[in-house]
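Lecture notes, continued. The same structure-token format from the folding unit now serves as the input rather than the output. Read the line below as a description of shape only.
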């Protein structure tokens, strides 16, 4: 009897080894991906190109740094493009791969993996295995209480690092360390945000846990609108595995807890009812019930089932696939469908628009405002108009500026008479007086406005730093002028 069993099991084992040969669990791929994006997130704030950050939205300096180019607050027309890329990108990822963002890139998920799987399980052994996330440790034991305190303390240190890293995208690291560690009393708002965000991360990861994904995060509700039959996600195959549950939605009731019960009704069912896919789930769902809002597409259930079914020489009953392909067996997943092509087209358009607009970076900004007095009439019949010019040097070095009137030779600059210097990143207000000795109009009924074009430039770099602005020169009603001698 034993020899027969041995001869029957050996081919099966060989088949299992062949089937699982070269198989890399999704969890391992996720861990490497987590490491990569965490490394990028930590390093990016310190990388500069030409003295400017890769990305920095500084409310303190009132600047946006993007790909090494610094934009002034008056140039924040780029922000809508960045926001569109962010939201359209997430929507496109959801339409193609479900909640792939949640399982593979969301900081909440990464933080929970670090705390639960690494600190609590691998380092401290508070959980016996990361394969069973449903079995809680016995906290009545003093040893486990101590381990829990140590785990919270270790995560608290990492939470402060994560909070600092988040703020580095709004406050440059070099300024952040000065504000927080050298002059904290003068920057209490920054310190408050830093400490408050760190404490939120501690409470979130230690106490709220995956309930944040299930009950708080609105993304799980949005995803149901974006899904279609070709959206790729973790899907259980009820045709091969058998219908473990009966009913629909929240009314599903468990029908078969043991394989023999399932086989008595569905003899061809392949599910072993081992529930490996259930115990490993971080959001505590049973993937065999079908699509659920709580699923974050971490694919740990796929790994669990692949290992169990692979030992039997069979493909996993839970696949990273679409409902059309795995749930209903109606053909291959269509990745190049209309919705995906539309998302891709819009993303390309927005990206091109962002680069085009970003390439038109102005190294000098100029606002021209007319003063409240329309004009001044002198005894010699000359007419003056006064303006307030606000110059901003958005370049990284000092420049000498001046301006000229390019389309009306009858109007001249009375003030200022000399070019002026503005330091890098500095602003300057200039009272400008334009005058004319010519009779520009002889209208006896009303004042006459003339549109004039102002060309401002840096004397030391006329080709690169030049802007054009239009304003109005108001010529008075003719009968207001002094009579000619």
């Amino acid at each position: 009897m034993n020899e027969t069993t041995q001869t029957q099991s050996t081919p099966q084992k060989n088949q299992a080894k062949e089937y699982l040969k070269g198989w890399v669990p999704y969890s391992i791929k996720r861990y490497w991906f987590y490491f990569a994006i965490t490394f990028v997130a930590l390093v990016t704030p310190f990388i500069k190109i030409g003295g400017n950050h890769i990305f920095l939205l500084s409310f303190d300096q009132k600047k946006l740094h993007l790909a090494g180019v610094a934009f002034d607050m008056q140039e924040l027309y780029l922000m809508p493009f960045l926001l569109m890329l962010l939201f359209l990108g997430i929507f496109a990822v959801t339409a193609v791969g479900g909640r792939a963002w949640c399982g593979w890139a969301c900081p909440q998920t990464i933080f929970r993996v670090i705390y639960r799987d690494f600190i609590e399980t691998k380092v401290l052994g508070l959980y016996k295995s990361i394969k069973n996330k449903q079995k809680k440790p016995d906290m009545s034991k003093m040893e486990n209480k101590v381990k829990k305190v140590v785990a919270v303390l270790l995560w608290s240190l990492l939470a402060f690092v994560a909070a600092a890293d988040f703020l580095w995208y709004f406050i440059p690291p070099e300024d952040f360390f000065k504000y927080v560690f050298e002059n904290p009393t003068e920057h209490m708002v920054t310190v408050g945000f830093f400490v408050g965000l760190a404490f939120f991360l501690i409470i979130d990861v230690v106490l709220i846990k995956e309930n944040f994904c299930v009950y708080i995060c609105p993304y799980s509700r949005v995803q149901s609108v974006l899904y279609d039959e070709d959206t790729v996600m973790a899907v259980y195959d009820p045709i091969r595995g058998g219908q473990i549950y009966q009913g629909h939605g929240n009314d599903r009731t468990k029908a078969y807890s043991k394989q023999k019960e399932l086989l008595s009704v569905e003899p061809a069912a392949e599910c072993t009812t081992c529930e490996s896919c259930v115990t490993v789930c971080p959001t505590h769902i049973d993937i065999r019930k079908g699509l659920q809002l709580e699923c974050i597409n971490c694919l740990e259930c796929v790994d669990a089932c692949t290992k169990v079914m692979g030992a039997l020489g069979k493909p996993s009953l839970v696949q990273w696939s679409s409902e059309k392909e795995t749930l209903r067996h109606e053909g291959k997943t269509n990745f190049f469908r209309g919705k995906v092509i539309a998302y891709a087209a819009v993303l390309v358009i927005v990206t091109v628009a962002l680069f085009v607009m970003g390439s038109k970076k102005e190294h000098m900004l100029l606002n021209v405002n007319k003063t409240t007095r329309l004009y001044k009439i002198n005894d010699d019949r000359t007419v003056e108009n006064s303006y307030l010019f606000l110059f901003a040097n958005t370049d990284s070095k000092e420049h000498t500026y001046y301006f000229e009137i390019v389309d009306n030779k009858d109007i001249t600059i009375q003030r200022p008479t000399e070019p002026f210097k503005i330091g890098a990143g500095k602003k300057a207000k200039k009272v400008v007086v334009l005058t004319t000795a010519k009779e520009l109009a002889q209208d006896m009924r009303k004042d006459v406005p003339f549109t004039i074009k102002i060309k401002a430039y840096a004397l030391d770099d006329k080709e690169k730093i030049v802007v054009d602005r239009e304003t109005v020169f108001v010529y008075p009603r003719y009968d207001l002028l002094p009579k000619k001698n």
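Point for the exam: Confidence is low (pLDDT under 50) at residues 1-8.
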